[in-house]
Design brief:
alpha/beta, single chain
Length: 215
C-alpha cells in the first residue's frame, strides 16, 4: 500500500511512518509531507535504516502557506498515479501570541484544518484509483465550536480556542466526506476519525512552557 502522512517527522506521525514502512513482509510505501527538507531527509534515512525499506520519500510543504499546499498537490500528482491512504496528522499546538500566516489567516485554523481540507480534496482522485479502497484517517479531538463571526479570531484569540475551532471544522469535513461517499455506489473511499489523549505520543509536550507541563 502507498500512504501519505502529514506531520510524519516527529511524534505519532513518525511512529506511524516507521510501523507502516516495516509492516509484515510487504512493507508499505510511505510518503512523508514535511516542512523541513533537512529533518525530512534525516527521518527518511532513519526509517530506511531501521526497516530496510527504501520506499520512503518526502514531499516538502509548509502548511502555513496555501501556495506550498498547491505545489505539494501538483508534485504528488506528478510522482504518483494512486494513493491507498492519507493520514491527516500534522497540527499546531501551543502558541504564545496571535500571528497571521502569509494568507492572512489564524495559523491553527489554516494548518490544523484548511490546508488539510485543500490537500485531501485535491488528492481524492488518486485515492479513487486505489485497488484496495482508498481511505483518509483523521487525527481529531472532541469539543470546540466554530465562531462564524470571527473565524480568524481577530477580536478574541486563545491558542486552545484556535485548536478546538480547527478540530470542530475538521470533524465537520470528515462527516461530510463520509456522508457524500457512503452514498456513492461507485466509490470505495472511506473516512475515519480517531482520538488520542492530549499529548500522548506527540511532540506537543516539548513546546509547552515548563509551568504548564505540571497542569
Amino acid at each position: 500500500m502507498k500512504i501519505l502522512i502529514t506531520g510524519g517527522t516527529n511524534g505519532m506521525g513518525k511512529g506511524v511512518a516507521e510501523v507502516l514502512a516495516g509492516a509484515d513482509n510487504q512493507a508499505h510505501e510511505v510518503i512523508i509531507l514535511c516542512r523541513s527538507e533537512m529533518l525530512g531527509m534525516k527521518v527518511r534515512e532513519e526509517i530506511i535504516e531501521k526497516t530496510l525499506n527504501e520506499k520512503v520519500s518526502i514531499v516538502l510543504c509548509d502548511l502555513t502557506k496555501l501556495s506550498d499546499v498547491k505545489h505539494a498537490i501538483d508534485e504528488i500528482h506528478t510522482q504518483h498515479t494512486y494513493l491507498d491512504g492519507i493520514f491527516i496528522n500534522a497540527g499546531l499546538g501551543y502558541a504564545s501570541e496571535r500571528v497571521e500566516t502569509e494568507d492572512s489567516m489564524d495559523p491553527h485554523f489554516q494548518v490544523n484544518y484548511l490546508s488539510h481540507f485543500m490537500l485531501t480534496l485535491n488528492l481524492l482522485d488518486l485515492l479513487e484509483k486505489s485497488q484496495s479502497g482508498g481511505r483518509v484517517i483523521f487525527n481529531v479531538t472532541e469539543g470546540g465550536k466554530i465562531n462564524w463571526d470571527d473565524l480568524q479570531m481577530e477580536n478574541k484569540w486563545g491558542y486552545e480556542a484556535g485548536i478546538k475551532q480547527a478540530m470542530a471544522a475538521k470533524r465537520m469535513f470528515l462527516i461530510k466526506l463520509h456522508d457524500v461517499y457512503t452514498n456513492k455506489a461507485s466509490s470505495q473511499l472511506s473516512f475515519i476519525g480517531f482520538q488520542i489523549p492530549k499529548t500522548v505520543w506527540t511532540n506537543q509536550i516539548n513546546i509547552i512552557p515548563a509551568p504548564m507541563k505540571m497542569m
